[in-house]
Each structure stands twice: as C-alpha cells, then as structure tokens.
Amino acid sequence: MTINEQMKLWNNNLLAILNIEWFEQEDEQIIIHKNLPTSSFIIMTKGEGEVCFNNICHTFSSTYIFHLQKKQSLEIHTSKNCAYFLVYYRSKNKALFTNTNYHFKATDHLSILEPIQQIYQNKNYNLALNHLYITMLAQQFSYQIYRQYHFPHYDLTSQVIHYFHQHFKQSLTLEHLAKHFHCSVSYLSKQFKENTNYAPMYYLGKVRIDAAIELLLTSDATLQEIAERTGHLDGYSLSRSFKKYTHLSPTAFKTRYRLEDLPTIRREFAILSSTPSLYTMNDIENNYQIRREKHSMMYQSMKSTLLALVMCLSIVLTACNTTPAEKTEIKQEQQATETRVVKTPHGDVTIPANPKRVIADQYMGQLFKLGIIPVGVRSYMLSEAWFDYAGISQETLNQIEDLGGFPMNAEKMITLEPDLIIGSIEDNIEQYEKIGTTIFVPYWEELSTAGPIEKFQRIASLFGKENEADEWISDFNNQVTDAQKIINKHIKKDETVSVIQISSQGNFVLASEGGNYGSPIIYDMLKLTPTEQAKNIKDGFENISLEVLRDYIGDHVFVYIGSEEDAAPVLESAVWKDIPAVKNGNVYFYGQMGDEFVMEDPYSLEMQLNKIIDVVENHK
After folding, report:
1. Predicted confidence (pLDDT) per residue in 131-160, tens digit
2. Of the candidates 602, 600, 595, 116, the residue with the CA atom closest to the CA atom of residue 615
3. Other CB atoms closer than 10 Å to residue 406's CB: what's the count?
4. Which residues form the Fe/B12 periplasmic-binding domain (predicted)?
5. Interatomic CA distance for residues 446 and 454, integer angstroms
6. Residues 427, 432, 437, CA angle at the centre, nearest 5°?
7. Torsion of CA 469, 396, 202, 273, to 10 degrees
C-alpha cells in the first residue's frame, strides 16, 4: 500500500478508543495479558524491560510504543518502577493497523502520551461534550502514531516547528524544548537557526502573532482575551510583540487590514512560489505546511485563508517599507558589520563598531547618558531612582524588554537578537556568550567595586564614546568643586568621617576605597577624611557587631538604612547613643534602600551629590 493510499484511509478513519488501563509496577514482575479483546496499543511511560509475543521478546524503554492485534497474548517483563498505558481501540478501516503487530521508538513521545493521558482522565465523565473531546483526542493520538511510525527520521527542526504549532498557547522555554526533544539547548538552537536563520523563540513568537492576527481580524475579542489564547502574558505583552513582528499596533493593523480585503489578498497569495525552498523565513510557513501535508492526515487543511493573509501582509509590509528611510537603515546595517577589538578581563573581544541592539544586566544609567537605549535589561534596572531626574519617559522604558534577574532570561535574550551583551557577573558570562557577542564588565571585583567614574569610562570605551564621557566628567568635577566649598564649612579637614549602612543583614562600615551606597561621593569626590578603620577595610565594606560599632565611628557619621524598622534596634540602643559623634549631633541620615544611592551612574552621582549637600547644609 502506497503512502497516498494509506493517507486516504487515514483521512476516512475514525479511531474509537474503547478503554484505557494504567499499570504501574514498583518491583520487577512478569505481567501477562491473554487474548486481548481488541487491537491495542501499549504506551510505555517509564522503566525498561521486554515485551514478548509470538515467541519473540522485544526490549523497551520509556519511549517505546507497541501495537498488538486482537486476541494476541503477551508477557511484559518489567524492571523496577515501570509504568505503561494499555489502550483498547476499534478502527473503521482494518487495513491500517489492526491486522499487524509492530513496535517503534517514538521520536516525540509526549505528543503521543498527552492525548492518552487526557482521555484517561476524562473517560468516566458521561457527557456528550466530553465524548466529542475524547473523539478529538483519539484522532490526535492516531495522527501522532501515524507520523512517528512512518517518519521516524522527521528532522529536529520540523519537529520543533510542529510542536510550536501544537503548543504555542503554553508557556514554552528552550529548556522545556530541549528536554522534550532529548537534546541540549545549544544543539537545538544551533540546528534550528542553521535551518531557518531564526532563533527558536523568535519563530515561536511569529507563530503566536499569526494566531493573534487571525483572532484580531475574525472576532471582537479584547487584546487580553487574544493574549490568553495565543501564549502571551497579557494584552500589553501582546501589543509589544505585535509591533515587533508587524511594525504596527494591533489597532492600526485592524484598521488597515479588514476581512473584505481577503479576495485581493488571496489573489496576491496565489502568485507566490508554490515550491518554496526549505526553511526560508518568508516561506517557512508554506514549507511547514507542505511537509505536514506529506506526513499528516489531521492537519493537511490547517493552513487557513487568514494565515495566507498573514504571509501576504508580511510581504506587503516589507515592500511598503522600501523607502529612503530604509536606505538609511541599510547603511546603518553596513556600518554595524564593522568591528573593533576591546580589552576585557577575559581577553580581547571583537565587537560591532556600532552596536544597535544592546542587552545589559547592569549599567543602564551609563548607557542612557551616552545616548544608548538598550533593547533588554535586568528587571531591577527598570525601576531605578534616576528616571524622573533624567527626564526618561515611561514610553521610552516600555520599549525595553524586562529580562528578569541574574542571570537574565536566555529565551527572551535570544528573541531580541542582540549584537552586544554586557554582563557584570562572571558566572553568567558563559551563558550569555552562547547567545551573542558578550563583554564582561565587572561591577564588583571580589567584594570591592571600581570607582563610578572608572565604570562610566569603561562603558563609554565599548561604544567609542570616550569624548562624551570626558565631557560629562569635566562638568561633574566642576560641580564637585563647588560642593566641596559648601561641605568644608560644616566638616573640617582634620575631622574624620565614617559611612555606615544599617540593614536587616547587619551593620556595615563602608571602606574609604571600593565601597558603594554613597561612599565614593563622600570619600573620593568630596575628599572627606576617612577613619583609619575605613582605610584598612580591604573588601569595600565590613560587617561588624553593635558592640564594636563605637570603634569604627569617626567625628562625623553618614548613615544609610535599609528601612526604619531595620535601623530602630541600633539607633535606639544604649551603645549607639553613647558614641561621641551621636552625642555631638554629627549624624547625617542621607538615604534609604531603593533610592538614588543604590546605583553609580552619572545621573545617580549628580543626585547623590545634591543630596549630600542638602543633608549637610540642613543638618541641625
């Protein structure tokens, strides 16, 4: 029987699942099934062993599928912790599977297992709608059996594409995909990109947007409702993705393209190449459908008219965007291909001369001061205290992707297609390097931090913007000189100064060099005199007990707190009240966690300088 003949039978086949039994064995056993009442499938789910029938034993592992004829008897020799489903079914066309025994190793085991699990969980609900649901799942199961039995070497990229179209509504990650397809993240990403020229998660985003467009043009669903049905977190996330893939907002897209445009769109689509080359991005949807038509009985008609519309619109949008502005973009792209070499703690790294798509897990203020808006940053960087001071609008911030904490989310990073990644923690650099060109610019060096001016200069050097950095540094130094004159009226040169931080984690004395939370402003820039203890702290800070706090406090003390609640036990203690600087009223409360003293970018430094001046001048 030819493949085409089998396909005709499958397209007319209605597989009815009569019953499903679940077997799970903790110990090694021999399970005997005599005279199976119907043709059956055995779906292995875990463990290993042998299935014996017709005097032949076949070894199995957790991804094997067995088909057995009606009235067949068999023995299953199980290992410890072995489990399987026994599926009894009836088929309209006996010429398909019912008259033969066979087995195979599934290439996409979960796609076979999932519909069986759903049927098993719902089989006892005697509702008409439930029967319809089970019937649908049965056909899904039969399709997977057919595809994986006849096409065991269906390549990885095609399998991933197929999986995307089946599961795009779910939350998917590269780690999930790698586990599902039994390969590493790097191998999956490399194979997919080599075959499609796109990262897997970018392609998944396109599948989701195609589905969103279909709902947008065929229903009155809200963006939130569409988001929930297309794998997006919320309506806002959907809107951002929509603009990324179509260059239009959902509202603008719906205004421009309506259902009455379909006849025209169909005619335009009809002149497209009917034999697209494998995996080209413009035709990847067509190619995917062609491959599915060859290997599928359930999905050969799945390419809807609206998906055709989506493809045509992609072409139309591309054509319409060929303007003088595009020529400028092409020129910029050519410039972006130029490279230069920069020195890093990991050696020389070749980077784009004019990177346009920058991701960073630190240094957001430095980037903005240099006129660089990153495409993605660490979550905390989207809530820094200097935005209002710098005049950064919410609209600008909305353009920046939230990439989570340390390390940043790899899947999201891949979809942003960065041409430069800036990482500040050494342990994360290797992961970032798998995604794109990465520069290691340490924020902390062991437990000390480089000076804020040096950090700014390092970032500026990556982009060839040393002149811009020097201009700001010169201006800031003038501000510091003016501030010194004010501060010296209140704190004399021969008086020592301490900087401490009181938090829930302890009492920290900040070093005269390598500290943070305002200590660079106080010591390095305003040139206030540190105590000997502050000079001798090597690692930027030292956590000390309340009992010895007195020994670390100079004539004046600047206090930074985590919260008022954290600070209360220390500030209300007898030890604190007995410290000479406290008795003399030389205590300056200058900040609290989450304010402008957390970061050390140019905007924050200007705010810190102004705050210290204000605190000292208005001290009572």
Report:
1. 778 888 888 888 888 777 776 555 678 788
2. 595
3. 14
4. 355-620
5. 16
6. 125
7. -110
**What pLDDT was estimated at residue 152?**
59
Rg (the chain; Cα; Å):
33
User: What sign does the dihedral 165-169-173-175 (CA atoms) show?
Assistant: negative
Report the candidate in 66, 84, 86, 82 with the shortest Cα–Cα distance to residue 20: 86
Whether the pLDDT of residue 335 is over 80: the answer is no
Q: What six digits make up the tokens of 426?
A: 């050494």
Q: Which two tokens stand for residue 479?
A: 């501000």
- Report pLDDT digits (tens) over 210-257: 888 888 888 888 888 898 899 987 777 788 788 888 877 888 788 777
- Distance, C-alpha 228 to centroid of its chain: 18
Q: Which two tokens stand for residue 509?
A: 């004395």
Q: Which domains does the chain have, with CATH numbers?
A: 3-153 (2.60.120.810), 196-320 (1.10.10), 335-442 (3.40.50.1980), 477-617 (3.40.50.1980)
DSSP state of 276: P
Angle between helix axes 156-167 and 284-295 (nearest 10 degrees) is: 100
Residue length, the chain? Answer: 620
Question: Distances from the Cα of 591 to the Cαs of 161, 448, 570, 620, in angstroms?
Answer: 52, 21, 16, 17
Measured between alpha carbons, how far is 95 from 580 in angstroms, rounded to an integer?
A: 97
* Per-residue buried b or exposed e for 265-279, using 16+ beta carbons within 10 Å of the residue's own CB: beebbeeeeeebeeb
Q: Cβ contacts of residue 468 below 8 Å, gap of 6+?
A: 369, 370, 371, 460
The answer, as to whether pTM is greater than 0.70, is no
- Distance, in Å, from the CA atom of 180 to the CA atom of 207, rounded to the nearest integer, reads 19
40 neighbors 82 (Cβ within 8 angstroms): no
Half-sphere exposure at residue 326, Cβ-oriented, CA atoms within 13 angstroms = 7
